[in-house]
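Worked problem 6 (solution included).
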Amino acid sequence: MWYVLEDMVPAGTTRANARETSIKVHGGILHTISVLMPPGSKGLSHFQLRKGGYYILPRNEDKSLYGDHLNVQYKEWLELPAPQNRLTLKTWNLDTSHDHKVRLLLGVLKKDVIEVEEEYLKTLKL
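Solution. The predicted structure is:
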């Protein structure tokens, strides 16, 4: 299952007054995070992804991801039990003239589905 978590971050949004956008996903394993940042932000639009107080991307809470025209995919393995499945995108935009979009595609599958897939891939490598 794929989920979209995005925010159009207004110009002049500082880290001190960063925005938070949350999404509730079905229980399972967060296995892939695709980061999509359209061209034009010139590295001024920043984000962090977390689950509660746990920083998923990047892991160090004092850092952020940023860039211009990013399309990057990260592999992950984070269990999201059904009652504890809220992910939060924290965004800020140091561009004082233009709003910028941050979009994440989140791949979440049930653990047994991923385990079957991994076993199949192992057999192909033999």
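Discussion: Strands lie at 2-9, 19-24, 28-37, 45-51, 54-57, 65-66, 70-80, 86-93, 100-109.
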